[in-house]
Design goal:
Elements: E1 11-14, E2 25-28, E3 34-35, H1 64-95, H2 107-136, H3 143-176, H4 179-209
Antiparallel strand pairs: 1-2, 2-3
Helix pairs in contact: 1-2, 1-3, 2-3, 3-4
Length: 210
């Protein structure tokens, strides 16, 4: 009687927890896990890509953890765009009182300078807050809460930045030009911030929510 040829299993197909990875892992006997996707040498895929359910809100094939990671990465990239403007404005405001002509400013200009300085400092605090909170809560598995809180802090910081930049324009124009030019410049700058930063995106969001 002919005996059947024994089958030797030389590897184990591993699957991570649901939602933690998009592809299976292949671990050869005695080796480390390797991804089943095609390599840079042109080798074919050993196993097909695991199916992923679409996220109900984003429509992307991603898990809640992947979504939180993506949102935080996008937010930090946006903060890198806003922070240089805050730093330049804040540095400019800090050296203004040490100029010789600052003694000749009016009471209105002094009060406006104080408001501008405080708004710039507040914008810096609110925009940098997500970075500090992320460091403090490092490896506490609380990224979803951090993303939501950081989004609100970024909105507050950007609002303070818009106020600070508008006040700075009004302060400079009032010191150099007359009241008519100051009013026109203030209306133009505040209207630009209001339209581009708030009116346009809020209108678009309302259209998408319908």
């Amino acid at each position: 009687m002919k005996m059947p040829t024994p089958v030797i299993v030389t590897g184990v197909l591993l699957r991570q927890k649901p939602g933690s990875a998009r592809e299976a892992l292949w671990r050869p006997s005695g080796g480390s896990p390797t991804q089943s996707s095609s390599s840079s040498h042109g080798m074919g895929r050993r196993y097909p890509r695991l199916p992923m359910e679409l996220h109900p809100e984003t429509g992307r094939a991603e898990t809640p953890d992947e979504r939180a990671d993506r949102n935080l990465t996008e937010l930090l990239g946006e903060l890198r765009v806003a922070l240089p403007g805050v730093q330049v404005l804040f540095a400019f405001l800090l050296v203004v009182p040490f100029n010789q002509g600052f003694d000749d400013v009016t009471s209105f200009q002094r009060n406006l300078y104080l408001v501008t300085l405080l708004c710039a400092a507040g914008a810096s605090a609110w925009l940098i807050a997500p970075v500090v909170q992320h460091r403090i809560s490092f490896r506490r598995q609380d990224k979803e809460f951090l993303v939501v809180a950081a989004n609100r802090q970024a909105l507050v910081g950007l609002t303070l930045l818009a106020i600070a930049m508008t006040c700075a324009i009004v302060l400079v124009t009032d010191y150099i030009f007359g009241p008519v030019t100051t009013i026109l410049a203030g209306v133009f700058v505040s209207g630009s911030f209001g339209a581009l930063w708030y009116a346009v995106p809020i209108r678009r969001r309302m259209e998408l929510d319908r």
